[in-house]
Design brief:
Layout lengths: L3 H8 L1 H10 L7 H12 L3 H4 L21 E5 L5 E4 L1 E2 L3 E2 L20 E11 L5 H7 L28 E6 L14 E3 L22 H15 L4 H11 L5 E2 L2 E2 L4 E4 L12 H6 L6 E5 L2 H6 L5 E3 L2 E3 L10 E5 L7 H13 L1 E6 L2 E6 L3 E5 L12 E4 L21 H16 L6 H7 L6 H24 L1
Parallel strand pairs: 6-7, 10-17, 10-18, 11-14, 14-17
Antiparallel strand pairs: 1-5, 2-5, 3-4, 5-6, 8-9, 12-13, 15-16
């Protein structure tokens, strides 16, 4: 049975705001009261799913309550003022305003409050199966097909998505914006977990057999039967930032000797396959068009932050294809910087700012090694099949029963979030470091030499 508080919040959130306002006199505390009330009403997952998910603003009218799982793309818009108490002791904010012009003599300037303004977009790279599961959508759900205003604020060019102005009053966000720009007024917010769909480590469904089946499926469906390369792909996609000091960063991987496309199909079968089991996946083609005419790092232009291909949410996997590239230095440097340091530089007119990232990179290159990037490991592809389509269309990619896919997704998600502790005895056996910084750094240098030698040998294979 739906509670009356839940039913009221879904039917008329503006009326609920008015009732709360009439019961509270403290304008400064009111935004927190609103957030606490709505957070409590929608505290359960079942209650939260009652709120319609925002997939197309055209399907909602002004004043509707919606939920929007989004990535904040731009925090630079200037704060604004709003009238927290309107004439007649009425609630202000959250989109409630009086028709203009409002007589200045009726405004009590003590009732003005400041709010924060952001721009947010649909989560870049979110797989369709993940959207359907989290938003409780039917299997015949049709993704949004239109590109909204301000498409330059989404990382992937020409990709349909939802973009909206966000306003929070409790420094959680308000603006008199053009009616053509969707604007959301925050009632309450919740953080999204790294894997979007919460996972527990270790996964309940985990077994050596499940792991082996996953490796075999990746190999047979997208890598011409190469199980070793498939296992390296698995290790790469589950890696994440564990520590920044000392740096324990995601594993960057090059798959060398990867065939180039023979026709207009440039998205590798591997990307289509991974999109069935990974929550956040972006394929980055290093075409001349992208390198020379598309920015990979965010840039501020005319006081508006334009997005870049690499402005992706933490936990994303980025598949980089190298075929047919010879130039584009600045964009290449941005990719290498993230691989090496997990930091992305935002470019502003008179300065730059660096932001932390958590992205795993898988580079597909036709040569003996990547032409442009120094990755942690380089694994030459060794196809077991002579006639194999490395660039199949999505419809031709072998899929699996739902329960098997869910087992693979659970395994990957759990491995992405889990932490493993190494006992002291094991640590000493695997990494015999004497006390003192000199011995510690000597070990790091030795490990780096070993890695370089290993890559050199791999190149010769």
């Amino acid at each position: 049975m739906v509670s009356s508080l839940l039913a009221d919040a879904l039917a008329d959130p503006i009326a609920v705001l008015s009732d709360l306002f009439n019961d509270n006199d403290d304008l400064d505390a009111f935004p927190e009261i609103v957030a606490a009330h709505f957070s409590d009403v929608f505290s359960s997952s079942d209650a939260l799913t009652e709120i319609p998910a925002l997939h197309d603003p055209a399907n909602h009218k002004e004043g509707d309550i919606v939920r929007f799982r989004a990535m904040v793309q731009d925090t630079s818009p200037s704060p604004e003022f709003y009238l927290a108490r309107r004439p007649g002791q009425r609630c202000g904010g959250w989109g409630q305003s009086d028709p203009l012009p409002l007589s200045l003599t009726t405004i009590d300037y003590a009732d003005l409050r400041e709010c924060t303004v952001l721009w947010a977009v649909s989560v870049p790279g979110e797989s369709q199966w993940c959207t359907q599961e989290v938003d409780s959508l039917k299997s015949n759900y049709t993704p949004i097909s239109s590109i909204p205003l301000k498409p330059h604020k989404f990382p992937v060019p020409a990709m349909p998505h939802v973009g909206a102005q966000i306003k929070a009053l409790n420094a959680h966000i308000e603006l008199d914006s053009p009616s053509s720009v969707p604007t959301l007024h925050i009632l309450f917010s919740q953080p999204v977990p790294l894997t979007v769909i919460p996972r527990m480590y270790p996964a309940a469904s985990y077994s050596i057999q499940t792991r082996d089946e996953l490796i075999a499926w990746i190999a047979d469906t997208s890598l011409a039967g190469d199980r070793e390369a498939s296992e390296w792909v698995l290790l790469s996609i589950i890696s994440r930032v564990h520590s920044r000091n000392p740096p324990i960063l995601p594993l960057s991987l090059s798959l060398s000797r990867f065939p180039s496309p023979k026709d207009l199909r440039t998205t590798p079968t591997l990307s289509h396959l991974l999109s069935q089991i990974i929550v956040l996946l972006t394929t980055l083609p290093l075409s001349l068009e992208n390198l020379n005419h598309t920015s990979f790092a965010p840039q501020s232009k005319d006081e508006d932050l334009h997005s870049g291909y690499l402005q992706l949410p933490r936990g994303s996997v980025c598949v980089v294809t190298e075929s047919g590239v010879t130039e584009g230095i600045m964009n290449l440097r941005a990719v290498q910087d993230i691989m090496s340091t997990q930091r992305l530089e935002y470019v502003f007119p008179f300065s730059t700012f660096t932001f932390d990232t958590d992205l795993a990179f898988l580079v597909l290159t036709e040569g003996e090694k990547s032409l442009f990037f120094q990755t942690d490991f380089n694994i030459p592809l060794k196809p077991k099949e002579t006639k194999f389509d490395f660039y199949a269309v999505p419809e031709d990619v072998a899929t699996l029963p739902r329960d098997k896919l869910e087992a693979f997704r659970s395994l990957i998600g759990a491995a992405k979030t889990g932490n493993v502790s190494v006992g002291e005895e094991t640590a000493q056996a695997a990494c015999p470091i004497a006390t003192g910084e000199r011995d510690y750094f000597a070990h790091l240098e030795s490990r780096q030499r070993f890695r370089s030698e290993t890559q050199s040998e791999a190149h010769k294979l």
